[in-house]
Amino acid sequence: MAAQTVASTTDSTTVDLGPAAALSCRECGHRVPLGPVFACEECFGPLEIAYDFSAYDTEELRKQIEAGPANIWRYAPLLPVPADVADKPNINPGWTKLVKADNLARELGVTGGLYVKDDSGNPTHSFKDRVVAQALEAARAFGFTTLSCSSTGNLAGAVGAAAARAGFRSCVFIPHDLEQGKVVMAAVYGGELVGIEGNYDDVNRFCSELIGDPAGEGWGFVNVNLRPYYAEGSKTLAYEICEQLGWKLPDQLVVPIASGSQLTKIDKGLQELIKLGLVEDKPYKIFGAQAEGCSPVSVAYKAGHDVVRPQKPNTIAKSLAIGNPADGPYVLDIARRTGGAVEDVNDEQVVDAIKLLARTEGIFAETAGGVTVGVTKKLIENGLLDPTLTTVVLNTGDGLKTLDAVASDTGLTATIRPNLDSFREAGLAS
């Protein structure tokens, strides 16, 4: 991505983003005022939100959270949003189910407790609603009028829905050959949907060019110039998981990798909960999951490299098909620091895992969820994930978005005449 280091004319001193104090470079620590920038002017490293949580009392904070709305705004004191965020027009995602997956656990041989964090229950049926809701508040604060993004599908739909709710114009960009379900869902909200001839990385490069052009004036690209704020939405997954476990850290988490931002922010969220005293500090392991046809981080991890070499994606898991993941090196750091790993599965294993989750728990996951479940199975078989420990697996989207992945061999059990004899002849009576 092009490094946008120049802020808009918005006076950041007047911006109310709650406990957010500044932007801080993840590499060199250089701090700048809050604004729509994502790269450090000193070293071009990624900028993150720095907070001031010093005034919080642990028990009072816990009570405030538990009394909050059943969405991500219950965690407003820990996010870059104004205190009255719940009263603003937004899609209000989050507080999705943490499903205790006992049937799947038996299939996989997990005895320590297996949970599926099912984010298909969000308004546009993917976790992207979390990050977009967060980015929308930043766009509102900085005076943007158009909401945009580069997307592999789910993000485009989330941006379209959030913009419609909040009264923003939307114009989103996707690879031209996405799954039809995702195209329709992104288009139905009435904004402009533009297909780019190429893969996601080509789309992202175009968006970076548009940001630097007068044609992009007033545009808030949720995953580019608003990326520091957008990314914080993923922390809410960590917050919810721990709260839903009774304010406890899980022992192991399996997280899908596209850009890698979700995994890094889940780790950030867990660390914040520890520092605030909301959970007891204990070791946890984070495992990254990729599809074999787009597995640059997995390849780097297995080779012991610190640098992620880009790949040209070729996988049915198109929501994870980012060949040059921006946060790849940080994913490697987290996997190694926590004692986790990064693994991948092929397309056949992805489809098998989608069916396994549906058959055991009644959860129809999109291909990214097939990746996490498939990788979980593989990690157990390889002895890298301990089946005696508490494990949380993420499902980040709804299988209705990726029907093509399972359509070829999924359908009617039988076709019968409307009588009992035909029913019995088909072997359905036993």
What overall geometry do the principal axes of the alpha carbons give? globular
Give the tally of structural domains. Answer: 2
Which structural class best describes the helix and strand composition?
Answer: alpha/beta
From the alpha carbons, calculate the radius of gyration and give it in angstroms: 21 Å
Largest sheet descriptor = 6 strands, mixed
If you consult CATH, what is the topology of the largest domain? Rossmann fold
Strand order of the largest sheet: 4-5-13-10-11-12
If classified by CATH, what would the architecture of the largest domain be? 3-Layer(aba) Sandwich
Low-confidence segments, given as residue ranges, are 1-12
What is the overall pLDDT average? 94
Describe this structure in words.
This protein is of the alpha/beta class and 430 residues long. It folds into two domains: 12-55 and 128-230, Rossmann fold (3-Layer(aba) Sandwich); 98-125 and 234-407, 3-Layer(aba) Sandwich (Rossmann fold). The protein is built from 15 helices and 13 strands. Strands 4-5-13-10-11-12 form a six-stranded mixed beta sheet, with helices on both faces. Strands 8-7-6-9 form a four-stranded parallel beta sheet. It has a three-stranded antiparallel beta sheet with strand order 2-1-3. A hairpin with a 5-residue loop joins strand 1 and strand 2 (31-32). Helix 4 (154-166) runs parallel beside helix 5, helix 8 (235-244) crosses helix 9 (261-275) and helix 12 crosses helix 13 (367-381). The chain starts with 19 loop residues before the first strand and ends in a 5-residue tail after the last helix.
